[in-house]
Design a protein that fits this description.
This protein is mainly alpha-helical and 267 residues long. 51% of the residues lie in helices and 9% in strands. The longest helix has 26 residues.
Length: 267
């Protein structure tokens, strides 16, 4: 497969996994740069072991203002965003007496729909929140993910009590919370882009809401791994090449060396 074909395959998918994501540019510069396809079990096994702070750089790489931050700031802000997501998961679970994201959505007055694909199916999308009260979980990607659960090592890594739709739903529910709670930390944090005397130009940092949404759904679903793992896992259902490229990228941002399929033989 040449790199143009690879890009073509990856671009529509990677533009948005959980709704409002930033475009992703697959950094394939030459044939040698092409991702080696890994078994899906290897990918989830490694990614599920990454601690929360290891996801900060990956998450920020989708942020338009990424270049304005140091690594230290990325880790610090990601930790604050995650804390905000977890705090709201606990608050809502207590208020509504449930941690089940489907029950929670109903109690929060959300209308959840499970169509096969988005109406505008020019790209693959797994879920999205539409203001003010609609959530769409797209079943094509979910079904493809379910098939992958039977691959060697996948269930062991992800755990028995994990449900793809409920996880996606939890993420989108946080966007509803963001819409309603204007004083949420992820809404109020602003980056000072520049100031001249008393005139400030500040901007919201989009990715903080995404990081918080991941921590929010992780907390509700009671899973030990970051839902960012789903970026690679669900993409694998469409193209193993793009998922392997994402895996390499995620491991790189975490400061780790991605494994190769032949490493399995040596273990
Ligand atoms: Zn989102």
């Amino acid at each position: 497969m040449n790199k143009e074909r690879l890009k073509e395959l990856a671009q529509p998918i990677l533009k948005g996994l959980f709704g409002k994501q930033m475009p992703y540019h697959l950094r394939v510069k030459s044939e040698e740069d092409k991702p080696v396809v890994r078994p899906v079990g290897m990918i989830v096994e490694d990614l599920c072991q990454l601690p929360e702070e290891a996801w900060a750089k990956y998450a920020f790489s989708r942020e338009p203002l990424n270049g304005k931050f140091t690594d230290g700031q990325r880790v610090e802000l990601a930790a604050k965003a995650s804390a905000c997501g977890r705090e709201w998961a606990e608050r809502l679970a207590k208020e509504h007496g449930t941690r089940d994201t489907s029950d929670l959505a109903a109690r929060m007055g959300m209308k959840v729909d499970y169509p096969l694909m988005p109406q505008n199916a020019s790209r693959v999308l797994f879920a999205e929140f539409k203001e003010p009260d609609k959530i769409y979980i797209y079943m094509d990607g979910v079904k493809k993910g379910k098939v992958l659960l039977d691959e060697p090592g996948v269930r062991e890594a992800l755990g028995a009590n994990f449900n793809i739709s409920r996880l996606l739903l939890g993420h989108e529910l946080f966007h509803r919370v963001e819409m309603q709670e204007k004083d949420l930390w992820t809404n109020t944090y602003q980056l000072d882009l520049w100031h001249i005397g008393p005139v400030h130009n500040r901007s919201k940092v989009f990715v903080l809401g995404e990081i918080a949404a991941m921590a929010f759904t992780q907390s509700l679903c009671g899973i030990s791994w970051s839902p960012y793992v789903m970026d690679a896992f669900l993409v694998y259902g469409y193209t193993a090449e793009a998922a392997s490229a994402l895996y390499e990228e995620m491991m790189g941002f975490a400061g780790l060396t991605p494994r190769l399929p032949q490493d399995l033989l040596e273990e």
